[in-house]
Structure formats: C-alpha cells, structure tokens
C-alpha cells in the first residue's frame, strides 16, 4: 500500500475519531478539572473494567500494514426511508426515529430528545478530509420538531458534532446532557450550547416524568492529539412511560460486565439500542466496538426485551463492507436461536414505536 502525505493527513484529520489522533493540531482547549474518583486520576478518566485505547504504533500497523483488507463502500446509498416526525408524542408511547450512525430522535412524554446528533457531511475536525457521509440523515434538519434535550455520549467526532450542536442551539436552545469534560469542549467552541456535565451514575430529571442516568460503558474519548481520556464517556438509561431504554452509542463487549450491571441496577429494560458496526479488524477494534455477535450477547446480558442496531452504514470508520453488520446480525441471531424480529438493524429514516 502506498503511503502518501494526503493519506496520512486524512488519517490524522478524520480517522482519528476512532483511533485516538483525531486532529493534526495540538489541542488548545481547556480540559476537565475535578476531584479524583474511582474512574478519574486527576488528569485522565479510565474504566476500571475496561481497556486503554490503542497505541500510535498499533494505529499505523492497522492503517498501513501490508495485510490490511479494507472493503470499498459505494459513494452514495439513497435512503429507502425518510421520516417527518410529529411535533411531539404524548401518553405512554415512545417514538424512535433513526437519523443514521448513532443519531436518534426519541419522542416521549411531550419531550423531543436527540441522541448524538450529527447532520454534518463529515466526522472530522476539518470539512475537506475524514470519513464522509454515505447517505442522507433519516430526518432532514428542517423537519425536526422543537428539540428539548440532547444527549451526547462522548467526544469522538462521529458523536460530538459541534456544527450540529451549534445549529440546534441557534434554532431550539435545548439542554445538552453529556459526561464530564465534554461540556468544556462544547462551550469552548460555542458558548450558546447549553451543556450540562454529569458523572457516571448521575440521574437527571428531564421533565414530564422522563429521566436519564449516565452509566459506564467500555470505550474512551479524544478530540486532539494530547487530550486522550481527558473527558468522560457514557451510555444512557432513559426512563420513559413505556419502560426503560438503554442507549449504547459506542462500546466494546469485554466480558459483558457493563451490560449485566445495567440489568442489575436498572432492569427491566424495554429496549436496548446497541452498536453493531465499525468492528474490523477485530485485533484492533475488539476493545472499542462490538461486532454483531457481541451485540447479541450484550442484548442477552442486559435483559432487554428488544434491541435496535445502529452505528453502521453511514460513515466508513473501519474495514468491513457497508452491509456486513446487518448480514452478520442475522447470522448471529440465528446462531443464538433468537427470533430476527427481536433485534433489528435499523436504516436511516426508519421509525419504531413502543
């Protein structure tokens, strides 16, 4: 494989959302400053039950090693679905609309909640390099209802998109609930973003009887070359009139302990939203991202009645084919003797109501 200056810069500017060198420039943003805890040493956050991110040497081994097999994605895939959501959802129902990648609109209890909203064409610190979108968002931004709350799981560029957050702040001024330190990233870029930083296990009342709890997850975060794990990452347990929804935006599987602990502390779960993509090569991605087989085990561990698969098919962050996660999910469910309808790989614009 030819190693070109453009290819190296593309890795540094874009692939970084995943591999820990998300920006070519030194990060000058302020970092979180708070008390030491069982998952913060005074400078860096860590998962006592997790694994550290890969080293720079391992990054280059993956990217430029002679045995790499990166499947080609089609340049553009037209969506087969497009959603125009209602102004709100009342009563004991929940309406979930898949925007794409890890972005969702969840409507319940008269609240409109966005999760990890990304409407940008690239997930990168620059607009001309880095992973690009391969399909339109399942909801056109102009068709969004008034947004009350935004949940942002961590700082990687495919989850924390400043351009989208600024646009939402300008149009709707929503509350933004995020793990510790990510509020510093947001406000440093745009003081209009109403970010609230919370720790693992914090429960936040959102209004209308809806609440969210931030729970540990097996991942990590960074935005610049020198800010690895200087902010926290989390998954969410959302309390709704239809039951609890476990939203996992990014996670490795590990021994499944995080999922079992959520079942113990927050069960029963009506629904789990689980990542199924960005998993190849396994030697590199295993500790960061689940593959569909892992996700099926995670569904069983957390005890969710039903699961929806996301984090696939929008941005090519890793080496598998665009349709590989959905196909592998079918195979994993068959192998586990679990009905296909219990765990569905979502497509942008699809809607589920519970």
Describe, in plain words, how this protein is organized in 3D.
The chain is α/β, with parallel strands linked by helices and 354 residues long. Helices cover 22% and strands 20% of the residues. It is built from eight helices and 14 strands. Strand 4, helix 3 (162-171) and strand 5 (175-179) form a beta-alpha-beta unit. Helix 5 (257-266) runs parallel beside helix 7. It is globular. The termini are far apart. The model is unreliable at 1-27 (pLDDT under 50).
Order of helices and strands: HHEEEEHEHEEEEEHEHHEHEE
Distance between the termini: 48 Å
Question: Helix- and strand-based class?
Answer: alpha/beta
The strand line-up of the biggest sheet is 6-5-4-3-2-1-14
The number of strands is: 14
List the uncertain runs: 1-27
* Mean model confidence by pLDDT: 92
Helix percent band? 10-25%
Query: Strand fraction band?
Result: 15-25%
Q: Provide the gyration radius in Å.
A: 19 Å
Q: Largest sheet, if any?
A: 7 strands, mixed
Helix count? 8
Question: Which geometry do the CA atoms define?
Answer: globular
Summarize, please:
The protein is an alpha/beta fold. It has eight helices and 14 strands. Strands 6-5-4-3-2-1-14 form a seven-stranded mixed β-sheet, with helices on one face. The chain has a seven-stranded mixed β-sheet with strand order 7-8-9-10-11-12-13, covered by helices on one side.
Furnish the topology, listing elements before pairings.
Layout: H1 5-19, H2 56-64, E1 94-100, E2 103-108, E3 111-115, E4 149-151, H3 162-171, E5 175-179, H4 182-189, E6 194-198, E7 203-207, E8 210-215, E9 235-240, E10 243-247, H5 257-266, E11 269-275, H6 282-285, H7 292-302, E12 306-310, H8 324-335, E13 343-345, E14 351-353
Parallel strand pairs: 3-4, 4-5, 5-6, 10-11, 11-12, 12-13
Antiparallel strand pairs: 1-2, 1-14, 2-3, 7-8, 8-9, 9-10
Helix pairs in contact: 5-7, 7-8
């Amino acid at each position: 494989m030819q190693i070109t200056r453009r290819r190296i810069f593309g890795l540094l500017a874009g692939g970084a959302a995943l591999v820990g060198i998300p920006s070519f420039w030194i990060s000058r943003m302020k970092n979180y400053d708070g008390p030491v805890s069982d998952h913060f040493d005074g400078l860096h956050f860590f998962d006592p039950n997790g694994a550290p991110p890969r080293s720079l040497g391992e990054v280059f081994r993956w990217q430029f090693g002679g045995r790499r097999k990166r499947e080609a994605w089609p340049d553009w895939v037209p969506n087969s679905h497009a959603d125009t959501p209602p102004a709100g959802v009342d009563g004991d129902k929940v309406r979930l609309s898949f925007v794409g990648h890890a972005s969702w609109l969840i409507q319940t209890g008269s609240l409109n909640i966005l999760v990890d909203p990304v409407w940008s064409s690239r997930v990168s610190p620059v607009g001309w390099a880095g992973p690009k979108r391969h399909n339109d968002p399942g909801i056109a931004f102009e068709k969004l209802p008034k947004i009350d709350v935004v949940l942002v799981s961590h700082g990687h560029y495919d989850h924390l998109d400043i351009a989208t957050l600024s646009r939402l702040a300008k149009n709707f001024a929503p509350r933004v609930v995020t793990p510790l330190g990510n509020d510093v990233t947001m406000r440093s870029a745009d003081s209009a973003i109403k970010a609230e930083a919370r720790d693992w296990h914090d429960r936040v009342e959102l209004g209308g009887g809806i609440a969210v709890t931030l729970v540990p997850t097996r991942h990590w975060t960074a935005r610049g070359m020198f800010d690895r794990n200087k902010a926290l990452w989390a998954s969410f347990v959302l309390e709704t009139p239809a039951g609890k929804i476990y939203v996992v935006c990014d996670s490795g599987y590990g021994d499944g302990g995080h999922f079992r602990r959520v079942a113990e502390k927050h069960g029963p779960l009506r629904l789990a939203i689980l990542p199924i993509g960005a998993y190849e090569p396994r030697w590199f991605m295993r500790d960061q991202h689940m593959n569909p087989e892992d996700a099926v085990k995670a569904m069983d561990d957390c005890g969710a009645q039903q699961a929806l698969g996301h984090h696939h098919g929008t941005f090519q962050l890793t080496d598998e084919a665009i349709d590989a996660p959905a196909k592998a999910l079918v195979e994993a469910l068959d192998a586990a003797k679990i009905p296909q309808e219990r765990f569905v790989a979502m497509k942008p614009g699809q809607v589920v109501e519970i």
